[in-house]
């Protein structure tokens, strides 16, 4: 049987691009995208993607060139998940919460040839490009503005605009053939806040298999109506950018993740599925019952959540509103979710509090993974499945990244003995369900965003009056966790907490700025001089963060309408000043 050869009929490279081709034929007249008053069918979406791919080729974009985009969840960024690889290029979606310095770092490191920018982000994009111009970057990317397709503003930066590329492109364009499924499809950065950012490269094969695994694991049926409450820059929307096409569903795109936009679209379009970090639960819960848009939803909405374990009381509250929550665990390096807390029928008989505790676990591996384990890293043996023995979470399978772009040292550190080492610490229960207990790298997860405590410490240490600093996670009622800094000052220093926070705000993206600074005379350390962060975390748990709600209650001039106007990520940045 070994002499039976592969041929074009029995072997085709795996790529999620086939999901769109199939959707354009099988679901041609179904609604593919809804955005305000804009509607497209799957036939139209396929044609628009062909046009954009054709225009990219005319701009001399060739195989493996990087195309970056800075945009909220609008139709253009969804279409680019297909159009860019259809041109043979690699898509890089940039976190819209980053500042100009970190955007510039990503553009430089990725060597992006084209930079698509939504009109709302033009100012920060200009600053990033100015920084590039003063750096050693030999080529500045070509800029294409994405104007609002529902309410065009006419704003420009140069001569190119997204809809212009759509109009000028060839609708009969034949997409580049994917002959090697190991070819890169996207480049996602885990952090844009260091001089050596980690660019995670996904393959066509990994994206395809991870998408199918999540569709099966979440039991997403045909014709789902999917609300884009999760940023598409997060692991390519946890692969659901491609997954909705695979199921012939409808993408409901929203520019702002506010309670008004979410409730309005859920009710108006009978949304069936959405993904989000637990912080979005708070946005939904804080909507006033008297507001027209927060009336009870009539259809049960499936929510896949991840980023940080949702507190049990929060899960109980959100489910009472008509949402059904499934918890996931993942990381950028695993092409998004790697574990799902698959629900067992027998758990339905348990009290609601017990159910919520079970749902807060990270669960079992998706089908793409060949194996998941919790290991003692000293001897590489699996820890006992007793829910108590702690070890490092290790993964292996086709959904794991190709590797870090231009970072051999980092690749060597995470790929060992046929496993990918996540850096997360957890336990495995008797039923095989995994639960994260801590992070060996002291990563802080705030609002679904990973924050390196070391990076924050390095910025604080640059202050001339700081002798030593250690940063850990502290509880935050809105974002789950937020950075807390313990700082030793120089002798006779008159520096105050506000000065350290201001220093951080000038050198870090808003979501990374510590919400609390505690001045101490010494830090708890081991005999070898290593800071005992577990002691600091215990102290940090006693600190209180003022919430957005309490601040608004103190101001009689702030209305519910005003709270709904800012974009969701602007709200996060504003809250970082609390």
TrEMBL record:
Pfam families (alphabetical): AMP-binding, AMP-binding_C
Record PROSITE patterns: AMP_BINDING
UniProt domain AMP-binding enzyme C-terminal: residue ranges: 455-530
GO molecular function: (E)-caffeate-CoA ligase activity
Source taxon at top rank: Eukaryota
Keyword vocabulary terms for this entry: Ligase, Phenylpropanoid metabolism
Ranges of residues in domain AMP-dependent synthetase/ligase: 22-405
The protein's annotated pathway: Phytoalexin biosynthesis; 3,4',5-trihydroxystilbene biosynthesis; 3,4',5-trihydroxystilbene from trans-4-coumarate: step 1/2
One of the protein's GO biological processes: phenylpropanoid metabolic process
The family this protein is said to belong to: Belongs to the ATP-dependent AMP-binding enzyme family.
NCBIfam families to which the protein is assigned, alphabetical: PRK08162.1 (NF006020)
Protein name (database record): 4-coumarate--CoA ligase
Organism: Solanum commersonii
